[in-house]
Amino acid sequence: MTDFPLHDEATAPEASKAMLAESKKQNGMIPGLHATMAEAPGLLASYRYAHEQFVNSSFDKEELTVVWQSLNVEHACHYCVPAHTGIAKAMKVDDAINDALRNETPLPSAHLEALRSFTLSVVRNRGNVDDATVQTFLDAGFTKRQILEVVLGVAQKVMSNYTNHLAQTPVDKPFQKFEWQKVA
Fold first, then answer.
1. In this structure, are residues 101 and 69 in contact, taking their beta carbons and an 8 Å threshold?
2. Which of 44, 72, 135, 136 is paired with 125 by a 20 to 30 Å CA distance?
């Protein structure tokens, strides 16, 4: 196993130092994901930008959570599922939504279920989604813009989920109580 450092403002490459300082200011700590990504400043910068753009997309807080957690669970990310459980709680997303996503059980609304289904189709088929699946998504009340915003969410989560797999990023203390493992 390759040992990846968890950087702080003192140990990070110069190009990552200001980003880690900003992460600490925004989060009250440097999240382990950011500390790990700091080894590659371009990855950290790209992830932070993708995150900002996705948060500012046309999705509401429940929809953001559905995309994030659907991907985190699909990728079996030991770090991101607990982290996004805490984030969803902070955003005041109904626990029933987050629990259904974590446990891969039906969501409380057909609208959110359509979003999860479409998101999983995008990632599982590497963007080669058939016309019927796209139409089902649109018929559920989503837009062409949101088709592309799902792609943005996938890109963001690939960066974080894959980094966490490769680095085995330890779950941050505030999120350890939300520990998760994918059911076989």
1. yes
2. 44
CATH number of 59-178: 1.20.1290.10
- pLDDT for residue 1: 64
End-to-end CA distance of the chain: 24
Amino acid at site 39: E
What are the phi and psi torsion angles at 28 (to 5°)?
A: 75, 5
Rounded Cα distance, 148 and 41, in Å: 26
DSSP string across 155-181:
HHHHHHHHHHHHHTPPPPGGGGGG---
Domain ranges for the chain, please list them: 14-54, 59-178
**Consecutive sets of 10 residues in the chain, 184 residues long: mean pLDDT of each?**
91 98 96 98 98 98 98 98 98 98 97 98 98 98 98 98 97 97 84
